[in-house]
């Protein structure tokens, strides 16, 4: 080797009564690359902050930097959990991989919400290189009587993505179930699912169910019902549709013969 490999550095605890802080300073030298690392990590009043700066060269005139900045704020209290995160990664050698991320996460017993805003590339003002993700979830009730509502969105101009999904679900155990879902993946391009199941709490059985699936250019449907007219008679109807105007429908009656008449 033309020159020795050198590694030296320090990690100092610079904490006080009001904060915890650690400072880092390290140097690495070799025939291939020279690197200097400096940064800190600090916690104070629920805020975690960190910065690491890497300066390096390849034993030539080149000078490069790789910097990581990050913050996370804990704003939780009682039954509310809430965190805010800000992160930035910049590189002078590979600027196309620069990243800026803002995230906000919140949750309580009935509601959860997440928002992500990610920029990448050299120009942080270039909106085509921005990814937005949002989602909200509401849950109320229990296993027997439950209600769920969920909305999620994704936007990414560089990939031509503008998608949204919606889900609404409710059920009352042994009585009814309803689910409505819609996924939109481009203008006027939707996938839709509707489910409706019903059962009446009467002495005689009466149940019905409908399932509808819609995709661009097609609407499919399945319906079925069973109704007990008496102790020994049941009516059954079923409809299957694979496209508007294309259906198959069946109707049947089932009569149970008493044992003494067999």
Description of the molecule:
It is a single chain. With 262 residues, the protein is mostly beta strands. It has no helices and 17 strands. It has strands at 6-13, 20-29, 34-44, 47-57, 64-74, 81-91, 99-107, 111-120, 130-141, 145-156, 161-172, 176-186, 189-199, 206-215, 218-230, 233-243, 246-255. It has a 17-stranded antiparallel beta sheet, with no helix packed on it. A hairpin with a 6-residue loop joins strand 1 (6-13) and strand 2. It is elongated, with a radius of gyration of 31 Å. The termini are far apart.
What's the alpha carbon Rg, rounded to whole Å?
31 Å
Q: Strand content of the residues, in percent?
A: over 45%
Structure classification: mainly beta
Quaternary structure type:
single chain
Average residue-wise pLDDT: 93
Number of strands: 17
Distance from N terminus to C terminus (CA atoms, Å) equals 103 Å
Q: Main beta sheet, described? A: 17 strands, antiparallel
Helix content: under 10%
Helical run tally: 0
Helix-strand pattern: EEEEEEEEEEEEEEEEE
Low-confidence stretches: none
General form:
elongated
Chain-wise SSE layout:
Blueprint (H helix, E strand, L loop, with lengths): L5 E8 L6 E10 L4 E11 L2 E11 L6 E11 L6 E11 L7 E9 L3 E10 L9 E12 L3 E12 L4 E12 L3 E11 L2 E11 L6 E10 L2 E13 L2 E11 L2 E10 L7
Antiparallel strand pairs: 1-2, 2-3, 3-4, 4-5, 5-6, 6-7, 7-8, 8-9, 9-10, 10-11, 11-12, 12-13, 13-14, 14-15, 15-16, 16-17
In short:
The protein has 262 residues and is mainly β. It has no helices and 17 strands.
């Amino acid at each position: 080797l033309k020159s020795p490999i050198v590694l030296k550095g320090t990690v100092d605890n610079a904490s006080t009564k009001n904060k915890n802080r650690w400072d880092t300073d390290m140097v690495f030298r070799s025939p291939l690359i020279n690197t200097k690392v400096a940064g800190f990590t600090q916690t104070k009043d629920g805020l975690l902050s960190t910065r690491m700066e890497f300066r390096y060269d390849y034993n030539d005139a080149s000078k490069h930097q790789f910097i990581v900045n990050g913050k996370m704020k804990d704003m939780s209290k009682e039954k509310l959990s809430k965190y805010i995160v800000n992160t930035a990664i910049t590189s002078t050698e590979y600027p196309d991989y620069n990243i800026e991320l803002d995230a906000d996460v919140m949750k309580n017993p009935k509601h959860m919400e997440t928002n992500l805003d990610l920029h990448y590339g050299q120009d942080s003002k270039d909106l085509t290189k921005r990814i937005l993700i949002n989602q909200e979830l509401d849950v109320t009730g229990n296993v027997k009587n439950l209600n769920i509502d969920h909305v999620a969105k994704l936007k990414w101009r560089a990939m031509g993505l503008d998608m949204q999904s919606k889900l609404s679900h409710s059920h009352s155990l042994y009585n009814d179930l309803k689910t409505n879902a819609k996924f939109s993946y481009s203008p006027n391009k939707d996938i839709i699912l509707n489910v409706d199941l019903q059962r009446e709490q009467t002495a005689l059985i009466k149940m019905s169910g409908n399932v509808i699936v819609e995709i661009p250019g097609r609407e499919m449907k399945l319906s079925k019902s069973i109704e007990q007219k008496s102790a020994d008679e049941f009516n059954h109807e079923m409809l299957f549709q694979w496209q508007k105007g294309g259906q198959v429908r069946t109707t049947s009656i089932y009569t149970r013969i008493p044992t003494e008449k067999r």
